[in-house]
Amino acid sequence: MTSNRLIIAIDGPSASGKSTIAKLLSKKLGYTYLDTGAMYRALAWKALKKNMELNSEEEMSQLARHSSIRFYQQEDDYRIIIDGEDVSDKIRHPQVSEAASRISSFPGVRQTLVKIQREIGAKGGLVAEGRDVCTKVFPKADFKFYLDASLAERAHRRYLELKKSGIIAFEEKVKEDIERRDRSDSQRTHSPLTRGKGSIYIDTTDLTIEEVLNLTLEKIKFREEDFFILDKD
Length: 233
Ligand code: DC
Hints:
single chain, alpha/beta, Rossmann fold, three-stranded antiparallel β-sheet, 9 helices, globular, binds 2'-deoxycytidine-5'-monophosphate
């Protein structure tokens, strides 16, 4: 394996395909996968469970400081653990999405989570995805991508995902939720979602997962010799 292990950062709005692509890329390159959104979700899940005041910046920042958040990754299994509890299957509920978006606006919360994210990326060999990984967490990442898709397409994808995980939702309501969350994620004062300088923009609306994956790999191909490619097919 080469010692030159890169950092690849992917930002984008909800259901733009970043998780799917980040997971596939990390597998292909033999890199660690970092889902920063899952960290905000896990914290929001804990706050909801403890019936805490989500609008209190002080309480939420303290909660972040006093929580242990870690990942467990083995082959295709990506789990998120908070205070020793595996919450991976509990954090995708719309109520948690909404709460995660709300608490992610607090700089005190972000500061703690960004510190953990940078520690995870300290040795390189990372594919990270979120809202600010290109602009704030890893601004010097070797490759930065901004994935996007139309609102209707993203709503449809999220609706199918929820359905698959047994959560009943109306597509129109999913669309409204996504639109509201995107608005607040892009309009907040601290580290808003934005297409930062140097990010490669990919509109995934009419593309298959394979096409998006190939596009990203195409962009990083010229440094292929730096990678430990597990599967070149
Ligand atoms: O990517 P996701 O839908 O799982 O993220 C959930 C929320 O967390 C999202 O609405 C905003 C917040 N978030 C953030 O502020 N910064 C990140 N890097 C990732 C997510």
